[in-house]
Design goal:
One of its GO terms (biological process) is carboxylic acid metabolic process. The chain is of the alpha/beta class. It contains 16 helices and 13 strands. Helix 2 runs antiparallel to helix 10, helix 4 crosses helix 5 and helix 14 packs across helix 16.
Length: 465
């Protein structure tokens, strides 16, 4: 590969970015978190650049990074009910935080030969990933028609090999807060750790409570909760790549560490999964939290609450849509007579990018909206487009799949060909209803196989000149 001038590289990057969904402006209801705070991006970018080449591998070599990490842990502990004994670690995201929470629980119970993890079916899929990586068996507890888990069912699932019980505050799919207090009490009674996954929206819940919302107790202030995780790159509005895992005390955290000295190089001691870590994301998060401060997050929570209320009212006003309970910063809805996958396409055609969610057992498909402060000025516009999109989707009718579709399509290549999707960096079709309908009809195991193979098909080398 021959080197090219810097300006040309940046021009090529700008051209590539034109195909991405919008990260700002309140039109993307998943993946990104936009506070619409003037100057915040520039501050975070400058802080990132100042520490991009700092290496978190050795805190004695770069004490600035150690200080920033300790500050982030301290700020998270203050928000999430931590006490004087609370300790924590800064990770790259919610998945790493959850993997480490599971590792600490597993390695903290070395006498259990076949460790198990108990969690509601609504818990984040990253916990299943953690269990798979760490060879911890899953005991998944179903939820009721109200999408809530019964604490008695969680307690009944705890057995002699259980090393960890997990609950969500809130859950990702529907934004509901699990009954943390009775679940944590059941775990404590059995002598088992209890982790609260607050990665998604946990940062904003304490501020919503201060605004008068009826947020139940969910954090380290709850007896029996031994650890909690929260992503700073979500509702703390830091750039991507920063989460915090808190433990009630140092003894609970110690099994999280990895140490190895039995080789001729340096002794490796890591609190997290990565060894070398860029200081850029940590510095950007530190600058963001310091700049916004307590009052800033309270104001952002208030603005987000306004947006949530407006979107919930907009959904409720449309015949055929059923609003699910709203407890946090998620608006989710199902439908009685509208194909939600066609509806999502109609919204996308009008510039709104939502997240369709597939059926799971008795849980019907839904549409998920992650609501941020940037959405507030756009609520009326969305409401009008939602009504128009529902009318258009109803007129088009549902997608119909041929009988025996899974038998006819024997490989992901044949699926891709049938749907008109290519390999490499080819973009997906503008309308996804057929693909989503196919995936919704597939059993979970088949859906997993299709998507794994499909992602592998997309991720192929290109000839870069």
């Amino acid at each position: 590969m021959k080197g090219i001038p810097a300006q040309q590289v940046l021009a090529e990057l700008a051209e590539l970015r034109k195909g991405d969904l919008p990260t700002h402006g309140g039109r993307l209801f998943a993946y990104v978190y936009d506070p619409a705070v003037p100057g915040l991006d520039e501050l975070a970018a400058a802080a990132y650049a100042s520490s991009a080449h700092v290496n978190g591998l050795d805190p004695t070599a770069f004490p600035s990074l150690l200080r920033m990490e300790n500050d982030l842990v301290g700020m998270a502990a203050a928000v999430l009910g931590g006490g004087p004994q609370t300790v924590g670690s800064v990770t790259s995201g919610g998945t790493e935080s959850l993997i480490l929470a599971v590792k600490a629980a597993r390695d903290g119970a070395p006498h259990i030969a076949e460790p198990r993890l108990v969690m509601p079916v609504t818990a984040h899929a990253a916990l299943a990933k953690a269990a798979a990586y760490l060879r911890v068996a899953l005991d998944v507890v179903p939820v009721g028609a109200d999408l809530r888990v019964d604490p008695a069912d969680v307690a009944a699932a705890i057995g002699p090999s259980t090393v960890l019980v997990v609950c969500s505050a809130p859950s990702y799919a529907h934004g509901l807060i699990d009954p943390v207090e009775p679940i944590a009490a059941a775990a404590a009674a059995a002598g088992v750790r209890c982790h609260v996954d607050a990665c998604f929206g946990g940062w904003t819940l304490p501020f919503l409570r201060r605004l008068g919302e009826p947020v139940p107790a969910f954090d380290l202030s709850v007896p029996g909760v031994t650890s909690i995780s929260v992503d700073l790159h979500k509702y703390a509005y830091a750039p991507k790549g920063v989460s915090v895992l808190l433990h009630r005390d140092e003894a609970l955290r110690l099994p999280q560490y990895f140490g190895y000295a039995d080789w001729p190089g340096y002794t490796m001691v890591n609190p997290v999964i990565s060894s070398t870590r860029s200081g850029g994301p940590i510095a950007a998060a530190w600058a963001t939290l310091r700049h916004l401060g307590d009052d800033g997050y309270l104001a952002l929570a208030d603005t987000t609450r306004t947006a949530v209320r407006g979107l919930a009212a907009a959904v409720s006003a449309v015949d055929g849509l059923r609003l699910l309970p709203v407890e946090s910063t998620v608006v989710a809805f199902q439908s009685t007579d509208v194909d939600l996958f066609v509806l999502a396409d109609e919204l996308a055609a009008r510039g709104w990018h939502t997240q369709p969610q597939f059926r799971h057992g008795d849980i019907a498909p839904s549409v998920h909206l992650t609501v941020t402060a940037a959405v507030a000025p756009r609520v009326e516009e969305f409401a009008a487009d939602l009504a128009a999109s529902v009318a258009a989707a109803r007129a088009l009718g549902p997608v119909e799949l041929p009988d025996g579709i899974f038998e006819l399509l024997g490989s992901v290549e044949s699926v891709a060909a049938a749907l008109g999707v290519g390999a490499g960096d080819s973009v997906l079709p503008e309308r996804m209803a057929v693909i989503n309908t196919l995936l919704n009809a597939a059993p979970p195991a088949v859906r997993e196989q299709l998507l794994v193979a499909f992602l592998s098909l997309l991720q192929r080398p290109t000839g870069v000149g």
